[in-house]
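Methods, example record. To illustrate the input and output format used throughout this study, we show the complete record for TGRM2 protein. The sequence lines were provided to the predictor; the line carrying structure tokens was produced by it.
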Amino acid sequence: PQQSLLKALSLLGSDDWELKEKGLFSIRHLAGSHSEVLLCSLRDVCWAVTSEVTNLRSKVSYSAIITLGELFATFKKDMDSEVDEVAQVLLQMVWNSPEFLQKAATQTLGIVVENVTPVRAMTALVDSGVQSRHVQVRKCAAQLLLSLVEKTGVTKLAGKARAERLAHAAGKLAQDCDKDTRHCGQEMVKMLLNHQNFKRLLEQSVSARDL
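The corresponding predicted structure is encoded as:
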């Protein structure tokens, strides 16, 4: 397995897209059968795979996106430190790629959000998604953020240091120009208003008229 990993990483460093695909397949295989080997080099593996997400060969790009999903599903919270970088690259694919890649990126983002620490996922979505100037990216981030708040629960997020950023993001999304994004933001605001701490934060970050 150790040799397979070194081989896979060297294939990813190749200029030949077919070899890159083989390398990505190898990493998916190792994630399923020898995850302990990948765990020791998780940072390097994740960096090598993430670098291929923007590959101009759509087959390689697709394969890299799917591989990232496998890594997050397998290693869960061990991937916390990779979330910011990966979310940024995947959200870029949501607006800047063919439809099948957009779909794959959205699905993998769902896997990411489901498996890492909620606060890490929330921060990545707010930083790279809510602030984006692209409608599709904000919409994708809003949908994932809403599902995260629903799943984690408002009370659990209220005591966190980043609670203020979540309140500000929900208020911003609730006034977005896209109706789907707006709907997600408004649903979040409704949920947050039920909690005293979030209610106070919302009143601070959104004008009374808008609220």
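Annotations derived from this record:
The chain has a mean pLDDT of 95.
Residues 131-210 form one domain.
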